[in-house]
Write a structure and sequence with these properties.
Elements: E1 3-11, E2 20-27, E3 32-36, H1 43-49, E4 59-66, E5 69-70, H2 76-86, E6 87-90, H3 104-113, H4 119-132, H5 138-141, H6 151-163, E7 169-173, H7 181-198, E8 201-206, H8 209-215, E9 218-223, E10 226-232, H9 233-238, H10 243-250, E11 300-301, E12 307-308, H11 313-317, E13 324-325
Length: about 325
């Protein structure tokens, strides 16, 4: 397994509840895994755990392994090498990753310098990388500055930088949400091609459940720092099992469904100041009973693969003959 996160819990000082609670998530080589949920659900923190970029004052338990290496135990040069070569991260805003007064080529040459490539070879490799991510006229692009390129072009530059050291795992944190739909489709197609050519493992973080269902092999759904459901993308979209997943789909508009009512999830997403004695979603769940507020849901394995964590799961969906607790 390329990325293997097991029972990861992260607690920050001064917060009433953990940022992450018992998060278990896996990404295999060549696999695209989606991670969805509202803002504040813990998606980005989960991704940062893969590069050991958690806050220094955080209390952390559980394990995070990338290609068998215990990431949380890495320090110094070993951690820098892990971040430079094994894992790469692409953020939502490409401009935040680029120095506005330096040329595109300088950004890529710096990334390549960490691999031991000399400057002349790095310059030639930078042109090759820009060509690989589909930027036209890459020889000219390396001489340009960020303000001379569009948002879609800059995202391609950042992806080229992420691929410079040929990492095995790519973390895409809302990497396409700031782009227009046409450019978004191009970037998604690019990532899919790169995944196939390089056998990359890709953790794809997004707010868009429909996009995740269409683009990913498997999808994890997070709420209040917990994974509440995990299924293959097709099964999650066709038969969501957790009430929160159903709520996300019900409030997401779909092209061509003019007559469908959009039903928002009531209430507000929980903050780190909120505490819970039972299910975190109980206060917003249309199917909750009184016991849900005091009963801590555990993941239950589903027929066909995956799991969901809901006290009322057997009643709401009807269990298959092999559904059982995963704990």
């Amino acid at each position: 397994m390329l990325l293997d996160i097991e029972n990861l819990t992260v607690q920050l000082p001064g917060t009433a509840r953990p940022v992450l609670t018992d998060v278990t998530l896996r990404v295999a080589a060549g696999e695209v895994v989606g991670l969805v949920g509202e803002s504040g659900s813990g998606k980005s923190t989960t991704a940062r755990a893969a590069i050991s970029a958690l806050p220094g004052d955080a209390a952390v338990s559980g394990s995070v392994r990338v290609d068998g290496t215990d990431v949380l135990a890495l320090r110094g040069e070993a951690l820098r090498a892990h971040r430079a070569r094994t894992v790469a991260m692409v953020h939502q805003d490409p401009r935040s990753a680029l120095n506005p007064v330096r040329r595109i080529g300088d950004f890529l040459v710096e990334r390549l310098a960490g691999t031991g490539t000399d400057r002349k070879a790095a310059r030639a490799r930078a042109v090759e990388l820009l060509d690989a991510v589909g930027l036209p006229d890459p020889e000219r692009r390396v001489r340009q500055r960020p303000h001379e390129l569009s948002g879609g072009m800059l995202q391609r530059v950042v992806i080229a930088g992420a691929l410079a050291a040929e990492p095995g795992l790519l973390l895409a944190d809302e990497a396409t949400s700031a782009l227009d739909v046409t450019t978004q489709a191009e970037i998604l197609a690019l990532l899919r091609t790169l995944r196939a050519e390089r056998s990359l493992g890709l953790l794809f973080i997004t707010h868009d459940l429909h996009l995740a269902a269409a683009y990913c092999d498997r999808v994890y759904v997070m709420y209040a720092g917990r994974v509440v459901e995990e299924q293959s993308a097709g099964a999650l979209f066709d038969g969501p099992r957790h009430p929160y997943t159903k709520g996300l789909l019900a409030c997401s508009p779909t092209l061509g469904e003019d007559g469908r009512e959009i039903r928002p999830i009531p209430g507000r997403p929980p903050s780190l100041a909120d505490t819970f004695g039972g299910c975190e979603f109980a206060g917003r769940c249309p199917d909750a009973e009184a016991d849900c507020a005091i009963w801590r849901p555990e993941p239950v394995a589903l027929d066909g693969g995956g799991a969901a964590a809901c006290r009322r799961l057997p009643v709401l969906t009807g269990p298959g003959p092999h559904e059982r607790s995963t704990r």
